[in-house]
């Protein structure tokens, strides 16, 4: 399956990297996945200039895995049977028989509990009318995701959720590569976290990043949130993971890692799916479970 993006090297603006063939049901699927640095020290690892996550920091964060090749995206637990992630993690194909969810582990491809996918619902307007718009997907698992000290359900935005003004601090975590060079970077073998700053929507739309891809039908829409933190970013392998707002003692899922260069440089914002815009869609598709 060909990935969708704005230019011959288009896969590099996703938050995933390195194509891996996935065969299931007689068909060939492709996900984008960076290699793991098995020699990476827990203290040395970075999302990109992030730090090691501790047990209990993000108990709703799960690894989305291929049953043969391991982790390729992140996600968040909504309830006992549903996980929310990014649509571009699945592109044009959605084969639940080769997808599983690993919950309750800080280590990549190890530990925790594994839950086989039963159903994958990619938003029917993914990349319409513009690339990466509606970048959201739901995964239903066969065996329950029960809450425990290592697995909890993420909070969705409400009418009382703080407005995401420029400069507001938000948080992300994942097993993505640990440098700004996606061509030579390695994924972290442990969960890493990073603090980011919200970037004003209008300023984000005028960023150099979007100017570079202005002829590729790539535009910032109202379904997207931007962050810009010099020297820090989510990057390849972090796709589908959460962007979180701290509200008191709780974390609220305000965004889903979607696309960007992952450099942490001025003019290269990170872009996230705005979860608040999909409350009706989420509830409609998970109703009765």
UniProtKB/TrEMBL annotation:
Gene Ontology process terms (BP): proteolysis
Question: Major place of localization?
Answer: secreted
Residues spanning the signal sequence: none
Q: Where is this gene product found?
A: Secreted
Q: Where is the Peptidase S1 domain?
A: 47-287
SMART domains reported in the protein's UniProt record: Tryp_SPc
User: What lineage does UniProt assign to this protein's organism?
Assistant: Eukaryota, Metazoa, Ecdysozoa, Arthropoda, Hexapoda
Quote the InterPro entries the UniProt record gives.
Peptidase_S1_PA, Peptidase_S1_PA_chymotrypsin, Peptidase_S1A, Serine_Proteases_S1, Trypsin_dom, TRYPSIN_HIS, TRYPSIN_SER
Q: Give any Pfam family that matches.
A: Trypsin
Q: Which UniProt keyword terms apply here?
A: Disulfide bond, Hydrolase, Protease, Secreted, Serine protease
Q: What is this protein called?
A: Peptidase S1 domain-containing protein
Keyword field contains Cell division:
no
Keyword Hydrolase included in the entry's annotation: yes
Q: Which GO terms describe its cellular component?
A: extracellular space
Read off the PANTHER family from this record: SRCR DOMAIN-CONTAINING PROTEIN (PTHR24264:SF65), TRYPSIN-RELATED (PTHR24264)
GO terms, molecular function: serine-type endopeptidase activity
């Amino acid at each position: 399956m060909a990935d969708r993006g704005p230019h011959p090297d288009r896969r590099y603006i996703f938050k995933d990297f390195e194509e891996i063939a996935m065969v299931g049901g007689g068909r060939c699927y492709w996900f984008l996945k960076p290699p793991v640095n098995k020699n990476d020290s827990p203290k040395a690892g970075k999302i990109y200039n992030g730090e090691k996550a501790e047990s209990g920091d993000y108990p709703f964060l799960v690894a989305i895995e291929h049953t043969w090749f391991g982790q390729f995206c992140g996600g968040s637990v909504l309830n006992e049977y549903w996980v929310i992630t990014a649509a571009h993690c699945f592109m044009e194909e959605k084969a639940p028989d080769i997808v599983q969810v690993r919950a309750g582990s800080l280590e990549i491809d190890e530990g925790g509990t594994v839950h086989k996918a039963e159903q994958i619902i990619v938003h029917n307007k993914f990349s319409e009318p513009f690339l990466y718009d509606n970048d959201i997907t739901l995964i239903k698992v066969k065996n329950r995701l029960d809450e425990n000290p290592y697995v909890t359900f993420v909070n969705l935005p409400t009418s009382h959720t703080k407005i995401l003004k420029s400069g507001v601090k938000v948080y992300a975590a994942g097993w993505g590569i640990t440098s700004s060079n996606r061509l030579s970077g390695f994924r972290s073998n442990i969960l890493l976290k990073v603090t980011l700053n919200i970037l004003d929507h209008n300023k984000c739309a005028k960023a150099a990043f979007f100017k570079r891809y202005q002829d590729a039908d790539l535009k910032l829409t109202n379904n997207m949130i931007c962050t810009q933190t010099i020297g820090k970013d989510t990057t390849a392998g972090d796709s589908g993971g959460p962007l979180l707002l701290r509200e008191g003692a709780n974390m609220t899922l305000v965004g889903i890692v979607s696309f960007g260069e992952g450099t942490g440089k001025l003019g290269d914002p990170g872009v996230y799916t705005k979860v608040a815009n999909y409350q009706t869609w989420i509830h409609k598709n998970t109703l009765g479970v």
